[in-house]
Specification:
The protein is of the alpha/beta class. It folds into two domains: 5-75 and 214-241, no CATH class; 79-210, von Willebrand factor, type A domain (Rossmann fold, 3-Layer(aba) Sandwich). Helices cover 36% and strands 20% of the residues. It has helices at 14-25, 50-67, 94-105, 130-139, 174-177, 196-203, 207-210, 221-241; strands at residues 5-7, 70-77, 81-87, 111-116, 122-127, 164-170, 186-190, 212-218. α3 (94-105) links the parallel β3 (81-87) and β4 (111-116). α3 runs antiparallel to α4. It starts with a strand and ends with a helix.
Length: 244
């Protein structure tokens, strides 16, 4: 429950020693009374009960803890993507290959897989070895066939679940190229003639752009509330006993 909690202003704890010094070195000469009880004036001794002493120091301690501002730092890492390029062989032009290379270079924290259905399928599993990926992309050349994409491409994501699955389907005629797609994976259907690299970077920013989000959870409200309850108990005791 208290794991990772620390104080933003720990040096304010010296205030407690100030109160302790005042308690020992600066005793009150007269006891102020809240709503004095006249029946108690004749008593020779009026000592506060133990619970009032506990309430007083609990009030002081909790208020000081609230001033010290207990917080917990939380880091929220944005998920990386596991990206599968499913490429229509008939759309595999030099311009499309250059766009794929540009897209890969701009996403150093994502992993990529390639699938080109052809007479001899090109199947590259998810990898973050960008140099090899770029070399393979630069050398790709296939003979167009009538092969279609099916939901079986989901097997590219079965090796690991480090990132969020994302299928980028490149085809000038996606209706003829796609037979079925996995229902649990995000899919972007791209016509290579479009300026698709910038569009995908805007809709799915790279991890290096988003970074790691940090925020603080503040817990000062809890000691503040407990200190307020202790103060009410202490003031109630002073009212009932007519003591300081």
């Amino acid at each position: 429950m208290f794991e990772g909690i620390y104080f933003q202003f720990p040096k304010l704890s010296f205030i407690l020693f100030f109160f302790l010094a005042c308690e020992a070195l600066c005793p009150l000469r007269t006891n102020a009374l809240y709503f004095p009880r006249t029946l108690l004036f004749g008593e020779s001794k009026m000592r506060p009960p133990l619970w009032m002493w506990i309430a007083k120091w609990a009030m002081i301690s909790f208020f000081i803890v609230a001033l010290m501002s207990p917080v917990r730092e939380t880091k929220e890492e944005v998920e990386v993507y596991d990206i599968l390029f499913a490429i229509d062989p008939q759309s595999l032009t030099s311009e499309t290959l250059n766009d794929i290379q540009t897209f890969i270079k701009g996403r150093e924290n994502d992993r990529f897989a390639l699938f080109v259905p052809a007479s001899s399928d090109i199947m590259i599993p998810l990898s973050d070895d960008y140099e090899k990926l770029l070399k393979i992309v630069a050398q790709m050349s296939v003979v167009p066939t009538e092969e279609k994409i099916t939901r079986q491409i989901d097997r590219f994501f079965t090796t690991t679940s480090e990132g969020r699955g994302w299928i980028i389907l490149l085809s000038e005629e996606p209706k003829n190229f796609v037979q079925s797609l996995p229902v649990d994976k995000e899919t972007s259907i791209i016509v290579p003639s479009e300026d698709w690299v910038e569009a995908l970077d805007r809709s799915h920013p790279a991890f290096s752009v988003i970074g790691v989000q940090k925020y603080f959870e503040y817990f000062y409200i809890y000691p503040l509330f407990l200190g307020f309850l202790a103060m009410l108990a202490y003031l109630y005791g002073r009212n009932q006993k007519g003591l300081r």
